[in-house]
Amino acid sequence: MGKLTMLNKHVIVGFIDFPLRSSNERNFLSSFLRSVGKRNWREKFTVNLHRDTPDFSGSDVPLHISVRFDEGKIVFNCYTKGAWGKEERQKIPFKKGDPFDIRIRAHDNKFTVYCDRPIPYESGIAGEGLNPGKSLIIYGIPEKKAKRFNINLLKKNGDIALHFNPRFDEKIKTQKPICHCSRTQRGHVIRNALINGQWGKEEREGKNPFEKHVAFDLEIKNEEYAFQIFVNGERFASFAHRVDPHEIGGLQIQGDLDITGIQIV
Q1: What domains, with CATH codes, occur in the chain?
Q2: Vertex 258, ends 257 and 259: CA angle to 5°?
Q3: Which of 113, 169, 245, 253 could in theory staple to 121 by disulfide, Cβ–Cβ 3.0 to 4.6 A?
């Protein structure tokens, strides 16, 4: 039986053979489990999250996902105290022979399941948008050969209230005063805004906290006078508002990034 590895609230198993049974040594709450593969000859496969017993025998299954290519459906259910609950069925989003990507996020009272979340990603923000007092949290992993990616907070008129752009392909050389040798850092993180079709002045102070193929949590908190930006729980930067902070209604993500989750809190 294998073991799951937790990294920045992301659960990473790697490339595996099936069937797989794996134990998670940490609480799964607020974490992500990701399954990536390719549909071959099989008509169906299942993903079960177990609890209580280490050998999986007779344990409750808080989440059962059955991907049924022969029916064209994904079936969701749970198994509690020896009985199955009521099935929920959704149309299968995968095509025969295509790669698939399933991601599961555990909340206090529910699971959220994402299928084939694409990049570039663009979406409106429900309700009143990202008003002051709210935070956007993005969970992601830069690609192995990532050059750059960007996250844009949009106004309804298309202006970009915040352009957040980590760049791995811009190298910075700094001098070590003792040995007089140079070392290369991981590039810049650009912050800017686009108003009426014109870019403003770039802000690029601070070291790039992102690493290629390493999971991260990014929180952008909208406060009355500025965005406060945190990476992996550490404060990274602030960006003073250049537009009305009450008018942010959209999110756009582009570049060499794999998204594992998005939250508005």
Answers
A1: 2-115 (2.60.120.200), 121-264 (2.60.120.200)
A2: 110
A3: 253
Cis peptide before 99 (omega within 30 of 0): no
The sign of the torsion formed by the CA atoms of 127, 132, 134, 135 equals: positive
pLDDT of 79-133, one tens digit each? 888 888 999 998 877 666 666 777 777 767 777 777 766 667 778 887 788 999 9
Phi-psi region of 55 (alpha: psi -120 to 50; beta: other; left: phi over 0): alpha
Amino acid, res. 134? K
> Across-strand partners of 11?
6, 33
Residues paired with residue 67 on neighbouring β-strands, in sequence order = 45, 74
pTM greater than 0.90 (yes/no): no
Determine the 3-state secondary structure of 5 from DSSP.
strand
Q: Which residue has the tokens 């949009």?
A: 154
**Token pair 């570039």 is at which residue?**
120
- As a whole number of angstroms, the distance between CA 253 and CA 119 comes to 7
